[in-house]
Amino acid sequence: MPDLPQKPLPDGQGEGFRVSTASPIDKLVGMIDVLPGGTVILSSVEQVLNWGRSSSLWALGFGLACCAIEMMAAAAGRFDMDRIGTFFRGTPRQADLIIVSGRCTIKMAPIVRRLYEQIPEPKYVISMGSCATCGGPFYYDNYSILKGIDTIIPVDVYVPGCPPRPEALYEGILKLQEKIKKEPFLRRRAGVVPA
Amino acid sequence: MALRTEELILNLGPQHPSTHGVLRMILTLDGENVLDVEPDIGYLHSSVEKMMEYRTYVQSVSLADRGMDYLAALANEEALLRAVETLGKIEVPPRAQWLRVIFLEFQRIASHLVWLGTWGADLGATTMFLWCFREREQVLDLFEKSTGGRLHHVYFRPGGVYEDIPDGWVEQALAFCEEFPGHIAEYEGLFTANPIFEVRTKGVGVLPRDVAMNMGACGPVARASGIAFDVRKTFPYEKYAEVEFDVPVQQAGDCFARYQVRVEEMRQSVRIIRQCIAKLPPGEIRAPKVPITLRLPKGEVYTRTESPRGDLGVFLVSEGEEHPYRVKIRAPAFSNLYALSEIMRGWKIADVIAILGSTDIVLSDVDR
């Protein structure tokens, strides 16, 4: 985190905490926060936690339509999503991430919503493909397809494409990892940062 | 004192890794035994038939890719364009016809590979999933080089194909045809003599010939039950009459027979592709003077093609406008699903997964 300001220690002793750029692990530590009730070196733990959380996103093995085939291709040999720590679990109870892959019908919408609610917090949503994002080619003259999955569940990352290539899904997951790394995960829990 | 037992109603799906999409099966169970099966479909109904009534014929091709069987997009394009070209009396140049056959057979291989891989994963053999997707990527590379897309191509257009194949494509396709039968032998080495696989599939889910006939089963499911019917042989379209290939037929009707039929079909597809490449003539790839806003004469037509899942028919009614009055798609996966759900009663839950996987359903094809 080279862009972090170097704060002096609150009691005025010594130099500010130095940020090392030697290795990625060293980049994680090195930020001091002032909490109500005392000074705590908190955000380093938070960053370590975020680093860990972002590097093992377990996705729900749940496919809706054509994009699910590209999702499977991304999980298979050539693209091998396990490399970035994402692999599929059969049940929402074990998942962190739901990849809404494909068009969602109005009949299916309550089930997607329920699956999302079954995932324990913290949870993330990737909307994969045009259909999940906005209805895609089924936007006009169509009575059965939901016009965007974000009408029922909150979406973190939209991946464009019809269907997106496995590389595009990769990019989406990496973008989500960046987002998770910036999250004030513990500070939000402590009530310092509003939820 | 006897234990009091009662029937249990279990929902299999819509979110279940083994339903290959969003199918809900309402199972009535007595312990492990399945007393009744009721498939509940419609979770992927995308109303493409209705949407096509508001699109021109060229626009409908891209809908056929997505809204119908998405594992075999080129087969859908062919099915729709067979109807359009038959009604409009559009002559497709020979080179385009040969190219279409090549791509249709590659599509069949790609589709069967997804089926074999996911069914293997259902039965606990993740290796098969990884192996099949490895070869499928090679087929998708070939698609991508000429059509520009991996899954959805919009490559077949009224009166021909969109573009000619690029340089070096034929050599790459032939290299794949050279290599692929060896991979099929690999799959068979993993599955055919595997005792676990035999126990899970041999004699399981037997679909008798008469039930298959009455329920309108088609494609590899019907051929595994002893019905020697293949649209490519019986009602040849494009250039299928000019190539030699066998239609694999099995008499047993169980899951293992369906597996054998599909694996043999992949071999036959390679054989067809080789012949097509040898016979591929130079020349035009698109009929001249097919307008973008194509108007078909007033009338109706029903055409049938053999998609990887079976007999895919399109009924098209035209009122002389630039869009169809009505399109009805006869989906093979729909009748196969109902044919097999007839015979799922009496088996264990684990067998239901095996039987369901062996139908090779695609819910987009069932619901449209």
Overview of the structural elements:
The complex is a heterodimer of chains A (195) and B (368). Chain A is 34% helix and 13% strand. By secondary structure, chain A is of the alpha/beta class. In chain A, the strands form 3 sheets. Chain A has a 3-stranded parallel sheet. A two-stranded antiparallel sheet of chain A has the order 1-2. In chain A, strand 3 (58-60), helix 3 (66-75) and strand 4 (87-89) form a beta-alpha-beta unit. Chain B has a 3-stranded antiparallel sheet. In chain B, strands 6-7-8 form a 3-stranded antiparallel sheet. A two-stranded antiparallel sheet of chain B has the order 4-5. In chain B, helix 4 packs antiparallel against helix 5 (126-147) and helix 4 (94-122) runs antiparallel to helix 11 (255-279). Chain B starts with 7 loop residues before the first strand and ends with a helix. At the A-B interface, helix 3 of A face helix 2, helix 4 and helix 5 of B.
Write the layout of secondary structure elements.
The complex is a heterodimer of chains A (195) and B (368).
Chain A: H1 24-28, E1 33-35, E2 38-40, H2 43-55, E3 58-60, H3 66-75, E4 87-89, E5 97-101, H4 109-118, E6 124-128, H5 129-134, E7 157-159, H6 166-181, H7 185-190
Parallel strand pairs in A: 3-4, 5-6, 6-7
Antiparallel strand pairs in A: 1-2
Helix pairs in contact in A: 2-6, 3-6
Chain B: E1 8-12, E2 24-30, E3 33-40, H1 48-52, H2 57-67, H3 73-88, H4 94-122, H5 126-147, E4 156-157, E5 160-161, H6 169-191, H7 195-201, H8 209-214, H9 219-224, H10 231-234, H11 255-279, E6 299-307, E7 310-318, E8 326-330, H12 332-342, H13 349-359, H14 363-367
Antiparallel strand pairs in B: 1-2, 2-3, 4-5, 6-7, 7-8
